[in-house]
Amino acid sequence: MSNTKNNPLILLKKRALYYLAKREYSHLELKLKLREYAQTLELNEEALDLFLSSLVSEGWLSNERYCEQFIHAKKNKFGRYKIIRELEEKGIDEALIEQYLKPLKNQEFLYAKQVWQKKFKFLPTSKEEWSKQARFLQSRGFDVSLIKKILNAKEE
User: Is it the case that residue 1 has pLDDT exceeding 50?
Assistant: First the structure.
């Protein structure tokens, strides 16, 4: 019988590539996803870390690619603060996040306005409406200065 079928690292690599074929993962996400499976294969945490490092060096796993893809997918729906928080939760370095968010700085107002228009259409006419719309935009991760610009604008 072939020993490669039962080799835990080959089985782990098959599982990892199966996940990565579906979508990009951050290093931390994939580690958490594979941890339990690695334990069933009797691989310790150190072996899992070495395995993940090999995926990075082979180009299968990339925090840069994940960060770029994540920002591209979320930029039309969420503001910079929510995107930053979610990426930090997924183990992405702050400097890397800033590197990929920097080009979007000039477009963030347009994205915020599109999100606002999709939900509300009309400027607030009372303090309660203003607060409601501001809370909505803030929950989407947009900056307070952008929110004020949008909600205090004159009807066009």
Answer: no
